[in-house]
Amino acid sequence: MLACSVGSCLLAVLSLVLLCTALFTDYWLVAFGPSDTAHSGLWQECRADVCVSPPHVTGYIQATRAFLILGALATAVSLLSLLLSVTSCVHIPVSTNLLASIAAFTAGSCTLLAMGVYTGESWHKNQDGQIQVTFQWSFYLGWAALPLLALSGTFALVAHQRHVGYERL
């Protein structure tokens, strides 16, 4: 079914944009203090418009980075498979919709792991009563990609199920 393949393709594009934006921006956490504001991402920390890469990266940041990169790569594989299924320019013996579905669900799993690890480790990070630490838009973009990946995988799976015959294998 072409509509499901196209819908899945659009959702995969949006998911990839959200994941890459979340991965490379620095507004995961923002700390509001009495005299200053700071924000941080997965790659650098900024205070007073001066951004630096931390000399020591904690394990949960490394895990979040790794799983988000894997999620973005799996999303790219899903997107390429969907583009092949929509254009039908290359005939391969494996269903591209099935491959796209598996890749999208894998990307969703990696994203869930990354966001869960970061959320769990950052939830009670604030120990100072004068500083308010909040999650910000980069963090929420990472979470927003998760349901889009699930929908993309579901649409690709429905498109795969609509084909009859030996091509389903």
Automatic annotation (TrEMBL):
Residues making up the signal peptide according to the UniProt record: 1-22
Q: Where are the transmembrane segments?
A: 66-86, 98-119, 139-159
Q: Does the keyword Membrane apply?
A: yes
Q: In its keyword annotation, does this UniProt entry include DNA repair?
A: no
Q: What's an example GO cellular component term for this entry? A: cytolytic granule membrane
Which keywords fit this entry according to its UniProt record?
Membrane, Signal, Transmembrane, Transmembrane helix
Q: Name one GO biological process term.
A: defense response to protozoan
Q: How does it sit in the membrane?
A: Multi-pass membrane protein
Location in the cell reads: Membrane
The protein depicted here goes by the name Natural killer cell granule protein 7
Gene designation per UniProt: NKG7
